[in-house]
Amino acid sequence: MAEKQKQFLGRFASTLLYKSNSRQFNSAYSVLMAEGEWCGELEQVTKDDRAILVTSRWTLMRDEDEKPKSILVVSTDITEKKQLEAQFLRIQRMESIGTLASGIAHD
Question: Please, what are the domains in the chain?
């Protein structure tokens, strides 16, 4: 086994993927434990310590006695999508300001 892989053995995924004391994570985890599932957006940390935004769906998996056993997590990186949406909104605002300014100048 590679040396890099050994650093992850025996650690919870939550300590690897989320910043410590993340309110978002704690809130999502509370909902998961209460309702059995959670879906939403979270900030995660990559292995090179870069923050990304993911849309995530968590499902609580239970054993035969209905006790929580594990959590099934499916996440999709939406960082670039969110950045493009923000850029598009800025462009729309600038166009609106330009239209308003041109209308005022015309009058």
Answer: 12-106 (3.30.450.20)
Max intra-chain CA distance, the chain: 75
Is the CB of residue 18 less than 8 Å from the CB of residue 45? yes
CA-CA distance, 79 to 76, in Å (whole number)? Answer: 9
How many other C-beta atoms can be found within 10 angstroms of the C-beta atom of residue 7?
11
The pLDDT value given to residue 71: 93
Query: What's the whole-model pTM score?
Result: 0.69
Q: Residue 38 contacts by C-beta under 8 Å, 6 or more apart in sequence?
A: 28, 29, 31, 32, 56, 57, 58
